[in-house]
Amino acid sequence: MTATVEEKTEGKVGAVPTFTVTIRVARYNPEADTEPHFEDYQVTAHATDRVLDALHQIKWEQDGSLSFRRSCAHGVCGSDAMRINGKNRLACKTLIKDVNPDKPITVEAIKGLPLEKDLIVDMEPFFDAYREVMPFLVTTGNEPTRERIQSQKDRDRFDDTTKCILCAACTTSCPVFWNDGQYFGPAAIVNAHRFIFDSRDEGGSQRLEILNDKEGVWRCRTTFNCTDACPRGIQVTQAIQEVKRALLTSRF
Amino acid sequence: MSTTTNYHAGPDAVSAKTSRYRRVSKGRGNFELWSWVFMRASGVLLLVLVFGHLFVNLMLGEGIHGVDFAFVAGKWASPFWQTWDMLMLWLAELHGFNGVRTIINDYTEKDRTRWILKGLLVASALLVLVLGTLVIFTFDPCLDPSSTLSVCTAR
User: Fold this and answer.
1) Residue A127: closest CA among B5, B74, B27
2) Is residue B1 less than 8 Å (CB to CB) from chain A?
3) Among the partner residues B10, B14, B106, nearest to A128 by beta-carbon distance
4) What ipTM goes with this model?
């Protein structure tokens, strides 16, 4: 790996082949533009490079005004979700060679949230919905002096939905959310699911009532866009359906 | 669980009073739950009712050639078929109504458009339901005294 990095800095063709790829970025400057427009950038990339590396190259070497979010750059913080070739992905987890570098690769901001600049959107509506489902442990009675014991089986029940990194790739791939900013969205439901099905939690029925809202789980059309988009491989649609089922079984 | 958040965003962001993201919904209650259940239940029932209807009308007896004014009058003389057809009418109309209501909710962006379309939808559904129910229970093939239908001249 070190060898690759050295070769890259020297600009030589080494064991990892380099190629030129066009990155077509949706640019939007709120002070000058009325709507976003595409701009093409030529980037020299290695087969091991991710889309994020290409964006770095553009920002650091070609056009410093390009704005995008990224923090850890390793698929954990969930900052750099964007629409790459029309699909929501994390730029730090998408290799350029995997998104057909023969054609220009389009990079846009995620859809459905207010665009602020270039690839940056206002995430507050997303977090507002997240806050509303009470994404924290709710308990009653005295706190135990030690850990809250849970069997492996009980832990496995909600394991899938603990993986969420709140990148908003799912919520902003949802056609219902695109048109209706009030819909809770997959991410909020996933994070409610994480506590509803946690045997240690006692706020499940409250969360179910919140998601019984007219903007709650019943707006889901099971288009599976969220499941396709999730960079963590969470079965998002399944989680939403499980919340629906829990709501139904609480009634019948 | 509303929390006050300090927003530092542009004019079209959540802080704006008219923002479509400003969380206003307090739409609690079970309406959407029941409408979801109704869609599934009525769908299953309609499968039985509609295919039963098609089988009885088109396959049994003379098949499609036997369907005329008198055939319909004969069927609606029986409370069984009156109930069957009324159930079919109401379930199909409400099933369709609910489906279109969902589509309107999903696709309209402005409140105004939404209410206009829903108004038209409610009006059309009411018209079909009232008119349909009326016909099922008051159908009289010999309403016209000069009718030449066999079922009327035989009387």
Assistant:
1) B5
2) yes
3) B14
4) 0.79
Residue from the list B9, B37, B105 with its beta carbon closest to the beta carbon of A122: B9
Contact A194, A204 (CB under 8 A): no
| Cβ-Cβ contacts under 8 Å, A218 against chain B | 32-33, 35-36
Q: Which residues are CB-neighbours of B94 under 8 A, at least 6 positions away?
A: B38, B42, B125
The answer to whether the Cβ–Cβ distance between B20 and A116 falls below 8 Å is: no
Residue B7's pLDDT band (cuts 50, 70, 90): very low
Q: Which residues of B touch A219 (CB under 8 A)?
A: 32, 105
Residue numbers in B near A122 (CB within 8 A): 9-10, 13-14
pLDDT score, position B69: 79
**Which tokens hold the place of A163?**
């993986």
> In terms of DSSP bridges, do strands A18-27 and A37-46 run parallel, antiparallel, or are they unpaired?
antiparallel
How many residues belong to chain B? 155
CB A142 within 8 A of CB A161: no
Q: pTM for the complete prediction? A: 0.85
> What local confidence, expressed as pLDDT, does residue B151 receive?
65
- pLDDT surpassing 70 at residue A13: no
Architecture of domain B31-153: Up-down Bundle (1.20)
Chain A (107-166) residues lying within 8 Å, Cβ to Cβ, of chain B = 113-114, 116, 122, 124-125, 127-129, 131-134
In this predicted structure, which of A42-46, A121-125, B59-63, B124-128 has the lowest mean pLDDT?
B59-63
Dihedral angle computed from the Cα positions of residues B12, B17, B21 and B26, in that order, rounded to the nearest 10 degrees: 180
B62 touching A (Cβ < 8 Å) = no
Instruction: Kindly list the structural domains of chain A, giving each domain's residue range(s) and its CATH number in brackets, ordered by start.
Output: 2-121 (3.10.20.30), 124-251 (1.10.1060.10)
